[in-house]
Structure formats: structure tokens, C-alpha cells
Amino acid sequence: MTAPALPGKNPARASAAAPLEQRRFLRSTAGLAAGVCIVTALAAVSLFVGVGDLSLSSLLSGDPTTRMLFWVSQLPRTLSIILAGMALSVAGLIMQLMARNKFVEPSTVGTVESAQLGILAVTVLLPGASMFLKMSTASVFAAAGTALFLLVLRRIPLRSTLIVPLVGIMLGGVISAVTTFFAYRTDLLQTLNSWMVGDFSGVLRGRYELLWIVGALTVIGYLAADRFTVAGMGADFTTNLGLNYNRVMALGLVIVSLISAVVVVSVGSIPFLGLIVPNLVSLMIGDNVRRAVPWVAVFGAGFVLLCDIIGRTIRYPYEIPVGVVVSAVGSVIFLYLLLRKRGSHA
Amino acid sequence: MICVNGVTKRYSSTVVVDGVSCRIQEGGITSIIGPNGAGKSTLLSMISRLLPMDSGSVTVDGLDVVSTPGRDLAKKMAILRQDNQLTVRLTVRDLVGFGRYPHNGGRPGPGDRTHIETAMAYLDLTALADKFVDELSGGQRQRAFIAMVLAQDTDYLLLDEPLNNLDMKHSVEMMRLLRRLTDDFGKTVVLVIHDINFASCYSDDIIAMCDGRLVHQGPPAEIMRSEVLKDIYEIDIRIEEIEGNRIGVYFA
């Protein structure tokens, strides 16, 4: 049938909705712009916080040491925080849609643990491996671990909201135990720690550029936004709307695994980030991915910037790794979300 | 026309749908009735390619549902199963808007907006358009899902127990709406339905299933007879004719 539309009872009603939607759009754009301003301000603070004697005036005066410090250490650090914060948050959102559960993210379903196992494998088998080779292996392991989680999920008939994250945490625990065992046997526990706890203090020019890949993956996630929203509605809805469910899942799997692997190789794991940021955004504006991704990205970048600044100043001149700060703040917010959800669905 | 040719589905040794063949004519309401576990929903899922079949084939207007590209089918046929749980937090307008996905690939144009607003108006959802689906009552949510498949604007609409969660007022409104869709716009509606009296009053054709097999097919006048219903449901159902409709009385 080619009839273009069912005639509405009241065509005026249809057009009356337009201004409302427009207002809403303007309001959300204004909110987003405010978010970008806050992130920019935090980024500026982040550039000039640190043990190095770096101030705006000395930078502008053209002092060569300051200038070098800025380009080699401070700027790469701030950029990598923004990239990792955005990407991990968006990866969390995509993971939640794929698992159809709000309480999962790459570090609670075995993705991050698998990536760590991958890095360990390369380090043991090919000690002189390049960053790129480490990253590739970590990605393959991460994808395999995530696929395993999704396969296990398919076999669980009754998926209660809390069973899904529990399965993920158990799976991650098992993989993590294997990693720790082999790290212990090969005397690499110390090294392993640097991939376990996210830390931006080691970021230098020449050692963070892989993170641009996750920036690109975030953009791909945004471009495929509608597919992920549809997949989040379930396999039947996806098929009904003419999409290949398995193909959408595969795309999500690749994006999530690559983002997790690259971040773990570059700066280590930052747990809870992909969990709390999408959940907070969901409370504010819902889960329509096309609308949510910009918010999740901005929020994620801002949150990690803030946590990194806290970690750098709270025990000055020492640093607390950002992974620790994010975990501490994140676990409190996670508990709040869990209890809130229980209350509203009881 | 939907042609079902010898469709079978089995889970290990249990045969759920057993070699069902039938034709569903264009432009009308076809109701699939039968006792629990008769294979009604399974049959509907196979017709709508949500469930792979073990043998047999299904064509919709000549398109084989297994081999035709998903997006082409999505413009021809919409399916809504029962017990839909949405974990994604979407507004009603967004949800209904996704019904347009097969047509616009996620890039809505002005025509899409008309479809969306019309579908919402049809299901009395305009006042709820900006609410999140998880904040609605069960009945409102069911109507939102129906609005979504309506916005999909397909020739064929397949609904698995669409009256689930609806009160009497909304059940009647839903059936009238489906009737209007077939009468005014030539759509073909296929329902799995439990209430034989709704099936009797609103259908053009009834397919009766029992133990995975198709046992009767025909217009309500043929199916709504005590001996036929006894054959399907194994209980005595008295038939009364009220205002030209055949009503089964089985409450006492």
C-alpha cells in the first residue's frame, strides 16, 4: 500500500506539537552548551594543576622548559582524560543497551578483565611487543570475553535485573583470577597493577595517541545511535523494524571491546564510569541514544577531569590514581542508583 | 495474501506447530484462537520471521519471509508480541517514532511526524506523548506499543494478544480501531486472541488451532457453533445470537 498517511482526527494537533519539541530541543542544546563550557573550564584547570611548576604567565612568557612541559606532559594528559572519559561512558551506554540491563558496563561483564589477560599474554609471550600489538591483542581478548558474557546471558531464561550484573561480575572475577595467577607465576604482578588501576600520571606525548582511536569509535557509536536504541528494545523489536539484530550486536561488541582495550593499554581501567554516567543521563533525558550520546560524552569527560583534579590535589604533591577516585565516588553513586531503582519498582 | 505452507516447529521432541497450512486473505481481520499451548503465538512468530521454522514456508504477498531482506519486510508487515518489556527509557513519542525506522533509517522527515502524531492520536496518547514509557500504566504502555507498529504503516499488522492489559473500554476501542484500519485503509490484521466473543464480533475469518494443528478455519458463523467449539476447547459453549453477533456463553 502506498497511501502516505492515515488521515489524522485533527491535523492541527500534529503541528501543535512542533513548537513544544522545538522548545525542548533548544533547552537541551542550551544545557549541553553549558556542559561543554564546564568541561572546558575543568580542562583549563587540569592543564595547570600538577607538581611541575607550570603557570599561565610562565607559559605565555615563552619559557622553553615550561613550554616543553606543557606540550609533552600537561596537554597530552588533559586530552587523554577527555578522550577516555567520553569513550568509556559511551561504551558503558552501548553495553547496557546490548545486555538490556542498566547495571552493566565493560568493567563488570569481563571485557576489561579479558583485555588485561590479553596484555599479560603479549607481555609474557612477546616481551618487546609494541603498544599497537598490545592493543590489538587486548582488543581480541576483550571481544572474546564480551561475546562469552553475551552468550551466557542468552542461556539464562529468567533475566532478573540483578542476575545480569552478577553473572558479569562473576565472569570477570574468573578471568581476573586467571590473569592474577599467571602474573604471579611470571613475576608480573607489579606490572599488572598498572593496567588494573587507571592512572593518567604516566601519560606523555608519544604514549597516548592510541586514544584518538577511541575518540573515533565514540563518533561511530553516535552515528549508529538509532541502531543501538532499537537493539536495546530487544531482538523481536529489532527484527520487526527490519534490522539484523546479530549485526547490530556485533557492531556494539567491536566498539565496546576496542574502547575498553585501548583505554586499558593506555591508562588502565577506570571502573564504574560507564555505569554511572549513562544512568545519570538516563534519569535526566532518557535513553534515546541519539540524544543521550552527546550528554554522556560531555558528562563522562567532565567527571573524569574532576576526579583527576581531585586525585592530584587532595594529597598534593602526591597523586591518587584517577581509577581509585572514580571508584570511590562511583560506588557511592552506584549504590544510590540501585536503591532508588529498588524503591521505585518494588 | 499470506500463504502458510506446511509450517512446523519443534523443540527437541515436542512438536509445537505441526504442519500448518493456511491462507490469510487481504483486507480483513483474521483471528487465531485455541486453548493454551495450541501453538498460536508460535505460528504468528514464524509468519512474522521472529522465529525460524523447522520446515515449511511462509510468503507475504509473494515475499518469502526467510529470504526477503528484513527492511523490505518491515515495510510490508509489522508484528507486536505480547509481554513487551522495555528496558530502554524512551518517551512515548520516541517509541512511536521508531515505528518509522524502516522507512527513514533514523532520519525522520516531515511525513514521519504526521504518521507519528496520527498514530498517537488514534490510540489516545497525545496527552502522554512526552511521558517516559516506564512511567505509564500497563494499558497505556500496550497502547504505546500498538501506536508504534501502527506508525510503521504496513499493509499487514500482526498482533499477539493485543487486548492484554487493556480494560473493557480500551479493549473495545482497540477492536474498533483494528476494524476501522481494515475497513477504511484496506489493512490486513492478524490477531492471536483468547476472547472468542471478540473474535466472533470483529473477525472476517477465524483460524482455530489445537495441539499445534490447524483444526478449523472459516468465518465466525461457521466457527461459532457449539460442536465446533467443543472440538477446540473441550467444553460446552452455548451460542446466543445477540444483535446479529454470535456470542459464546461459557461462564456457568
UniProtKB/TrEMBL annotation, chain A:
Transmembrane segment boundaries: 30-54, 75-95, 115-133, 140-156, 162-184, 210-228, 248-281, 293-314, 320-339
Superkingdom of this entry's organism?
Bacteria
Q: According to its UniProt record, where is this protein located?
A: Cell membrane
Recorded hits in InterPro entries, A to Z, give: ABC_BtuC-like, ABC_transptr_permease_BtuC
GO cellular component terms given for this protein: plasma membrane
Which keywords has UniProt assigned to this entry?
Answer: Cell membrane, Membrane, Transmembrane, Transmembrane helix, Transport
Q: Which SUPFAM superfamilies match?
A: ABC transporter involved in vitamin B12 uptake, BtuC (SSF81345)
One GO term in the molecular function aspect is:
transmembrane transporter activity
**Any one Pfam family match given in the protein's UniProt record, by short name:** FecCD
The topology of this chain with respect to the membrane is: Multi-pass membrane protein
A GO BP term here is: siderophore-iron import into cell
Q: Which family does it belong to?
A: Belongs to the binding-protein-dependent transport system permease family. FecCD subfamily.
Name this polypeptide is given: Iron chelate uptake ABC transporter family permease subunit
Q: What is the originating organism of this protein?
A: Arthrobacter yangruifuii
UniProtKB/TrEMBL annotation, chain B:
What is the membrane topology noted in the UniProt record heading this document?
Answer: Peripheral membrane protein
Give me any GO biological process, just one.
iron ion transport
Q: Which UniProt keywords apply?
A: ATP-binding, Cell membrane, Ion transport, Iron, Iron transport, Membrane, Nucleotide-binding, Transport
Report the GO terms under cellular component.
plasma membrane
* Family matches, as PROSITE patterns: ABC_TRANSPORTER_1, ABC_TRANSPORTER_2
Q: Does the keyword Metal-binding apply?
A: no
Matching InterPro entries, A to Z? AAA+_ATPase (IPR003593), ABC_transporter-like_ATP-bd (IPR003439), ABC_transporter-like_CS (IPR017871), P-loop_NTPase (IPR027417), Siderophore_ABC-ATPase (IPR051535)
A Pfam family matched by this chain, by name? ABC_tran
The record's SUPFAM superfamilies line, in alphabetical order, gives: P-loop containing nucleoside triphosphate hydrolases (SSF52540)
Which compartments is it annotated to reside in?
Cell membrane
From the Swiss-Prot or TrEMBL record, give the protein name.
ATP-binding cassette domain-containing protein
